[in-house]
Every structure is written in structure tokens, then in C-alpha cells.
Amino acid sequence: MKPEQCHHLIDYFNGTMTSEESAEFERHLQECSECREELAELRILTEDLPYLSDPVEPSPGLKNRILEAAYSEGQPIKEEPSEFQAYKASAEPQIKKSKRSQSLIIGGLAAGLVLSLGANIIQMSDDKEEQLVQSEVLERKVALASVEGNKTLNANASFLKEKGDQFMVLQADGLPEIKDGELYQVWLIKGEKPVPAGYFTPDEKGNGALVYKVTDEDLDWDTVAITVENEPNLSAPKGKVVLAGNM
Amino acid sequence: MVENNDAVLYERLAAKDKQAFETLYDRYEKLLFSFAFKITKDRGLAEEVMQDVFVKLWNGTHAFESSKGKFSSWLLTITRNKAIDMIRKYAKHEHVELMDKDALISEEKPVDKIIEWKEDRELIRSAVSELNVEQQKVIDLFYFKGFSQQKISEKCGVPLGTVKGRIRLALKHLRETLEKGGRSDYEA
To answer: What ipTM does the predicted assembly reach?
Structure first.
């Protein structure tokens, strides 16, 4: 009589088991040479089957859509399940925290607008955040993540509409210190085309924020990214991407 | 022709060479799309599969190692996994079909061997047609539908304990027929 686990090969191959069951089967695989051989055999025996597919023409725009989606992801992001879970768990309290301070920032935006006199970019400071006015409509919120997996680094971009104008309110916590003369540049990226969307320098605690008035030209963006640059509002990023998030 | 070798192109892709990525994309677009379509029976889902596979290929979430075997087999495997995930999510493809159905053959002229895989298809199709109906059905349920052992046992009306044996037998029979049919380019 074979061990119970040997009967799970098909379900393992097809991924119909829970992750615990799969992990258990993988432990079994290390001990059971017969299952290892059968699994390798299944892989070889099924290798030709995809070629049974009848050719179907993909739509002509597919390639460009996929390339845009791939390139707008920026730097490689490794998805390792265990690390991802740990990240989610550790990010939880921070999300709560940033929600609270975000409403302060939104209030700051309205206050800032009164003072802005048509300026596109308003640098936020702590005292402005204390004023609360809630007349904006939150349209969309994008969470940005560190491209290097730095878990203490978080940022959110909220897109708000006020009196027909759209604003992006961006705030970030846990930003690494930058050298004198360097700045954090925010980009709205549409496919491969980046548009500078304001810049800021963080305070001594590594917090930074900015408000950017979204113009009609940059409405169709799909990615928000932050790079470190030596000069503001370049036509394309030169420095490395620190944070990125997709719509 | 080393430049055109998949593994070399993949190395360049991993070093963020867009040209290499696009060459691999062009080489496999139609095969992967057709395969994803065969599994999902839906163009929209097949496009989502393609996007997931290629974005993860580019950003390094799916990382190929030559120890995993041929690049093409690996790419087809991750495509199958994603396509099967999608049909589980949208579970609407319950019906069984036989694999020698001749639907949806495009009228494109064959471009090259990988892009159109015409010879492979004809060889495999003819080998499949030599399998009996039960064997075709078990391969379809197992490979193209990704059903669990339990579900295959119910659909085929065979005891759970014999499902694996039937799948292996059908696949081995297919492989033997292919070998007899003159396929020379695969590893023993």
C-alpha cells in the first residue's frame, strides 16, 4: 500500500490543493523518489500538448498594451509569498496611521488652494495640515510601494476633485535621507511617457508631501512613481525609482 | 544564430533589454495566446493571461532558470497555470470536448516554425486521434481543464484511485504514437 500522499500527485500538478496541502506534498516529494519520477514524467508527457492549440490571432493592439503594462511597472518587484504576507501584516498599522494624517493633508490642500494664486505645486508644511476643510471629492487612491522591498517606506497618492480641477495629494513616510541638492521627484506615467508631477524634499523624520494640479494632458496616467533626482522637473527620470504604484 | 536562442534572449531580458523582451514576445505571442484561448475559450481572459505572464516575465516575478528545462516549456507551463487559474475564477467552461476538433483555424500563412507550430500541431493532432474517446477525454479534463482528481473521477465515472493511472496511460500512449509518427526532436 502506497503512502496516502502519493495519491495527491495529480492535484499537486494541477494546483488544486491549498497551499498547506501543496507544502505537505512537497515535503513528501523530497522523501518519495517514485513521486518525483512520476512528476517529472508528467511534465515530459504533457510538454507537447500546448501545440495542439489551434492558432488564434491575437488582437493587433495586444502587444503594445502588454509592453506598456510591463514597462510601466518600473523596477523588478519580487513577489515572494511569505515576505508578502509579512509585509501586509506589518503595513496594517501604518495604513491606519496614514488614513488619519491623510484627512489632515486633504484639509491642507483646500487651505493651500486659497493661497495658491494659480501655482501648480504647493509645498506642504506641518502647520497648514492643521486646518480642516472637507470640500473635495476623493476620486481615486493609489498605494505606492518601495521597489526595493523596504517595508517602512510607504506612500499614497490621492486624486481629488475640487470645483472641476483635479489634484493629486501625495504623501510619503519613511523616506531615506537624500544628499544636499537632491530631491524626490514624482512622476505620472502613461505607458512609457513620464510627466513630472511635482517634487519635494522630506523633513528630518523622512515624511514628505505635495499637492499637484493634474492637467488635462496627464489625465490618462497609469502609474505613479517617485525617483531621486539632482534637479527638478526633468523631461524624463534620470535617477533611480524609489517608489511606484499602479492605478 | 546564437543571438536568436531563447535562453540567450532570456538572459538579455533579465538584464532589462527591451529588444530581447520584444523578440521573445513576438516569437511566442501567437502560441501562448492560442494556448490561453484553448484553455479559457475567451479572448478577454486569454489577453489577461498574456498580460500577467509577460509583465511578470519582464519584472522578474517569473524567473527562468535553465535547470528548469527548455524555456518554451517553462513559458507554456506558467501560461497554463495562469489560464487555469482564470477559468477557476470564472468557472464557466464545464463542457468536455474532444481534442481533435477543427474549429478556429486561422487563415494566416505560416511564418516560421515556432510562430505557427503547424507541423507539431498536425503530428500531435494525428496522434491524439489514435487515442480512444475516453483517453482524449481524460487528457482534456486533466490538462486543459485542470480539474482535480476527484472531479475527473466523477466526470469519467471511474474510481478515484484509478484516475492517475488512466492519465499516465493516455499520455504515454500519446507519446508512443508521436514517436512512431516520426517526431524526432524531443528528449527521450
So the answer is: 0.84
CA B100/CA B105 separation, integer angstroms: 12
* pLDDT tens, chain A, 247 aa long: 567 889 999 999 999 999 999 999 999 999 999 999 999 999 999 999 999 999 999 999 999 999 999 998 754 433 333 333 333 333 333 333 333 344 444 444 444 443 443 333 344 434 444 333 445 677 778 888 888 888 888 898 888 777 777 888 888 888 888 888 888 999 988 877 888 888 888 888 888 888 888 877 666 788 899 999 888 888 888 888 899 988 7
Cα of A58 to nearest chain B Cα, Å: 6
At position A76, the amino acid (one-letter code) is P
- Determine how β-strand A223-229 pairs with β-strand A241-246: antiparallel
Q: What are the chain A neighbours of B128 within 8 Å (beta carbons)?
A: 52
Q: Work out the angle between the directed axes of helices B71-89 and B43-59 (0-180°, nearest 10).
A: 130
Contacts of A53 in chain B (CB under 8 A): 31, 34-35, 37-38, 121
Backbone region of residue A153 per phi and psi (left: phi > 0; alpha: psi in -120 to 50; beta: other values): beta
Report d(CA B163, CA B150) in Å as an integer. Answer: 8
Q: What is the four-CA torsion angle of A42, A47, A48, A49, rounded to 10 degrees?
A: 70
Side chain identity, residue B81: N
Q: Which cell numbers in the block locate residue A105?
A: 493633508
B10 touches chain A (CB under 8 A): no
Dist. CA A131–CA A105, nearest whole Å: 9
Query: Which residues have a Cβ under 8 Å from the Cβ of A229 and sit 6 or more positions away?
Result: A182, A183, A184, A185, A199, A237, A238, A239
Question: Which among B21, B34, B167 has the least Cβ separation from residue A54?
Answer: B34
Closest C-alpha among B35, B26, B122, B25 to residue B76: B35
DSSP β-bridge partners for residue A183:
A229
Sheet with strand A183-190: strands edge to edge: A121-123, A208-214, A165-173, A154-162, A137-146, A241-246, A223-229, A183-190, A193-200
Residues B31 and B116: their CA atoms lie apart, in Å, by: 7
pLDDT tens-place string over residues B95-110? 444 444 443 344 444 3
